[in-house]
């Protein structure tokens, strides 16, 4: 019987080895992603039931580690795998490791596999994508491979879920046997001869307990990165003493180790497999001829971006209209069917419009994330990095920066997390600092509302919609600003670290729809829950602040309009006057007027001011706030927010308040301003210093104020 | 038959890796399969002349020309 009550199984492998697909096949939707601000877990974890005895299944935690090529980390994402596997004090340190290997890339994948085998953590090898291997005309003798490397080998096609049950069964057997084997795997060590490092390893093993010579070598290489030794300072001291004595040239030793491992792997592969020399990678080559072509390469890239944004706007319109309709009905339903009073108002005027403002752009977010996931999953993003590396270098960036920059159009939070693949500190910092200038999906509803308000719906040359063009130029302005700021930062930031670009170009493949579906579900859920919480709280606070006023101001207003001079005014007009005066005198009105002097130079009134304050937590709150402000006391009428805003008259001009100048100024403000708590939180977490989010906030908001000011006075 | 660095190798010509210069990146390049004795060729050059994609260890790896200069090959 197993003695481990809650076993932990880690999945590790090269990038593109199909690890995530296997993770999804094992856990389904029973998983959680750590990429939320405030959550300290950086890796995905999930649960699955592993068969133990015919009648017993045990709940097992599966940990999906970021892809890596070796145990010597070169970038922040690769470091996670190392920390989990080599640090016994890590909360996710696994009982069993499943090494996921792309069968078509056996040689390179086995490097990491042999390193893990030498750590002597109980391990299994999941030989993934065996079907593509057959197509390539290659046969691997699974039993012989297993015998040679000393750990079970399970052939898999994780996309088709073939072999997943077998894998679970072998995991179950391994868990059962862990106690019997007393944690030491029977696998043969791949690195048997340590040559000049032998005395070092011997000394390390004499001062700390390690499972193998290789674990001892890992300790020698990375003692400062292993938190276990922070808890045991006396051991750390002893290790440092050993290192002091031997003065090992770690890089040289690691290089020799790598060469030796590859030599062993080359022999091994010859023994266990027959490769057909006519390996067909022609499809990838043909596609590359177009996608990385001197001229068409960039053209195709632009066309793909254009297509994505076009379809995001046009396709999302239908579900958005539908959602808006449902919420409008829901609001009027609660309004008429609930007993009138405070609670009714709070729900029908505060909460429902607030939630509606966020749910309505779920279709757009989902679509954007889908397209980006497809680009990544098919292998196209790697080509974009490849063709963009040289132009990006001029701006202090790296070819790898293009992925975070593009995915920032969906959301800056996951995109900033994905900068971990950029190993150069300066390039990574610049990418983090400029990525939020790309217009994210939270800005979309603001853009849509304001564009339809101030830009006439005209066609240019009969085919191009003016509103669509304005939308495109907002995205373009964000991109140009990002490049400009990057260029400036390139000259400001000092770093001696060398930049490099070494990246695998995976073969093109069809996207795995299940993985994409789970990714989208995950992101949308995170968005709705996280943003939803803030928006819900803000709409309640707003409603309270706008429904009450200091010094009985509301009663005084009611009194004032009862006077004889208003007797001739029509009831509707009177009602509107009362309500707008009440809003102005409410707590929220007072707050808005307090900040009006600051934003008046940009052309904004106090209502916009309130929306600006509330959307400093998250931009999308703008629309929710506007609909709350513009629906206080007005729930009877069926006007849309846009119509209500258009009816808002500027008392000085007698015309609509939302002129072209105000609209453009507000649009530009939202392009540049840093109005996202989640982004600031993630920047803090990734840079580990408050300085960076602060600089980001100041420069972006300063840029927003300046540019809005110029635009407003130019157009006025 | 003289040794040259990988970045000078003509497009599509196969060569054998002789050595990898020791620098901050040598371990990374070796881990990615650029090991002495391996056969490599440049399979693609990016539109602006840099980076390049090489075929090594049965897969495609891209790197900048500067990085390829550290890999010594022989035709």
Description:
The complex is a heterodimer of chains A (716) and B (75). By secondary structure, chain A is an alpha/beta fold. In chain A, α3 (106-119) links the parallel β5 and β6. The radius of gyration of chain A is 30 Å and the shape is elongated. The model of chain A is unreliable at 34-41 (pLDDT under 50). Chain B has a six-stranded antiparallel sheet with strand order 1-6-2-3-4-5. In chain B, β3 and β4 (52-56) form a beta hairpin. The model of chain B has no long low-confidence stretch (mean pLDDT 91). The chains are: A alpha/beta (716), B mainly beta (75). Chain A binds chain B through residues 69-70, 72, 74, 104-105, 107-108, 111, 251-252, 254-255, 258-259, 262, 279, 284-285, 288, 292-295, 297-298, 382, 386-387, 389-391, 399, 498, 500-507, and chain B through 20, 22, 24-33, 35-36, 43-44, 46-51, 53, 57-64, 66-67. β12 (502-505) of chain A pairs antiparallel with β5 of chain B.
Compact summary:
The complex is a heterodimer of chains A (716) and B (75). Helix content of chain A is 61%, strand content 8%.
Tag the structure with descriptive keywords.
heterodimer; A: alpha/beta; Rossmann fold; 8% strand; B: 75 residues; mainly beta; SH3 type barrels; 6-stranded antiparallel β-sheet; 13% helix
Please, what is the average pLDDT of chain B?
Answer: 91
Work out the radius of gyration of chain A.
Answer: 30 Å
Note the overall shape of chain A: elongated
Helix content of chain A: 55-70%
Rg value of chain B? 11 Å
List the domain count of chain B as a whole number: 1
CATH topology-level fold name of chain B: SH3 type barrels
Class from secondary-structure proportions of chain B:
mainly beta
**Sequence of strands across the biggest β-sheet of chain A:** 2-3-4-1-5-6-8
Strand content of chain B: 35-45%
Put simply, the count of helices of chain B is 2
Oligomer: heterodimer
Number of helices of chain A: 31
The CATH class of chain B turns out to be Mainly Beta
What is the element string of chain B, with H for helices and E for strands? EEHEEEHE
């Amino acid at each position: 019987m197993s003695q481990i009550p809650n076993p932990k199984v880690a999945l590790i492998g090269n990038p593109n080895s199909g690890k995530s697909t296997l993770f999804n096949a094992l856990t389904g939707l029973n998983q959680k992603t750590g990429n939320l601000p405030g959550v300290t877990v950086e890796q995905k974890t999930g649960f699955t039931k592993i068969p133990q005895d015919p009648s017993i299944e045990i709940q097992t935690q599966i940990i999906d580690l970021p892809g890596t090529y070796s145990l010597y980390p070169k970038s922040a994402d690769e470091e996670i795998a190392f920390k989990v596997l080599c640090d016994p004090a890590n909360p996710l340190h696994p009982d069993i490791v499943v090494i996921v290997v792309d069968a078509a890339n056996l040689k390179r994948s086995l490097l990491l596999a042999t390193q893990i085998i030498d750590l002597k953590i109980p391990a299994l090898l999941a030989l993934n994508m065996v079907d593509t291997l057959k197509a390539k005309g290659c046969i691997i003798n699974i039993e012989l491979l297993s015998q040679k490397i000393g750990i079970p080998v399970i052939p898999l096609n994780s996309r088709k879920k073939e072999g997943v049950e077998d894998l679970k069964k072998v995991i179950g057997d391994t868990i059962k046997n862990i106690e019997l084997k007393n944690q030491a795997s029977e696998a043969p060590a791949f690195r048997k001869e340590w040559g000049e490092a032998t005395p070092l390893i011997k000394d390390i093993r004499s001062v700390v307990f390690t499972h193998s010579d290789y674990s001892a070598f890992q300790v020698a290489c990375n003692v400062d990165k292993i938190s276990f030794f922070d808890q045991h300072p006396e051991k750390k001291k002893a290790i440092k003493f050993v290192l002091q004595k031997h003065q090992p040239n770690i890089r040289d030793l690691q290089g020799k180790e790598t060469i030796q491992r590859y030599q062993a792997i080359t022999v091994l592969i010859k023994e266990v497999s027959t490769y057909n020399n006519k390996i067909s990678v022609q499809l990838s080559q043909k596609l590359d001829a177009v996608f990385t072509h001197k001229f068409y390469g960039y053209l195709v890239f632009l066309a793909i971006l254009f297509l994505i944004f076009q379809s995001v706007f046009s396709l999302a319109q239908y579900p958005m209209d539908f959602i808006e309709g449902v919420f409008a009905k829901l609001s009027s339903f609660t309004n008429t069917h609930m007993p009138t009073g405070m609670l009714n108002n709070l729900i029908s005027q505060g909460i429902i419009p607030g939630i509606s403002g966020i749910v309505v752009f779920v279709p757009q977010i989902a679509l954007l994330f889908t397209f980006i996931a497809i680009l990544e999953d098919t292998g196209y993003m790697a080509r974009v990095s490849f063709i963009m590396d040289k132009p990006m270098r001029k701006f202090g960036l790296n070819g790898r920066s293009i992925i975070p920059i593009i995915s920032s159009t969906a959301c800056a939070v996951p995109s900033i997390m994905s900068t971990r693949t950029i190993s150069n500190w300066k390039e990574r910092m610049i990418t983090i600092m400029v990525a939020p200038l790309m217009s994210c999906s939270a800005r979309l509803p603001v853009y849509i509302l304001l564009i339809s308000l101030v830009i006439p719906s005209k066609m240019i040359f009969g085919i191009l919609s003016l509103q669509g063009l304005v939308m495109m130029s907002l995205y373009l302005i964000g991109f140009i600003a990002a490049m400009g700021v990057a260029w400036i930062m390139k000259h400001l930031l000092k770093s001696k670290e060398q930049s490099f670009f070494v990246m695998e170009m995976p073969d093109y493949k069809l996207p795995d729809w299940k993985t994409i579906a789970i990714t989208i579900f995950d992101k949308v859920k995170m968005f709705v829950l996280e943003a939803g919480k803030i928006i819900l709280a803000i709409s309640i606070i707003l409603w309270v602040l706008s429904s009450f006023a200091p010094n009985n101001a509301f009663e005084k207003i009611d009194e004032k309009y009862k006077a004889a001079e208003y007797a001739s005014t029509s009831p509707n007009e009177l009602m509107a006057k009362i309500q707008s005066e009440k809003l102005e005198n409410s707590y929220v009105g007072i707050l808005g007027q307090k900040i009006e002097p600051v934003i008046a130079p940009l052309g904004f009134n106090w209502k916009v001011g309130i929306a600006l304050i509330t959307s400093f937590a998250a931009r999308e709150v703008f629309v929710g706030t506007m609909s709350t402000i513009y629906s206080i006391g007005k729930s009877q009428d069926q006007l849309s927010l846009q119509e209500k805003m258009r009816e808002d008259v500027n008392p000085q001009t007698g015309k609509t308040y939302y002129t072209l100048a105000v609209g453009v100024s507000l649009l530009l403000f939202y392009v540049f301003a840093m109005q996202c708590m989640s982004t600031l939180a993630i920047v803090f977490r990734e840079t580990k210093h408050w300085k960076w989010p602060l600089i980001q906030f100041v420069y972006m908001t300063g840029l927003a104020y300046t540019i809005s000011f110029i635009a407003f006075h130019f157009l006025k | 038959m003289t040794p040259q660095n990988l970045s000078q190798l003509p497009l599509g010509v196969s060569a054998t890796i002789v050595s990898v210069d020791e620098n901050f990146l040598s371990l990374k390049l070796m881990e990615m399969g650029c090991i002495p004795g391996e056969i490599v060729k440049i399979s693609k050059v990016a539109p602006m002349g840099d980076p390049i994609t090489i075929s090594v260890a049965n897969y495609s790896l891209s790197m900048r020309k500067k990085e390829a200069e550290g890999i010594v090959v022989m035709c």
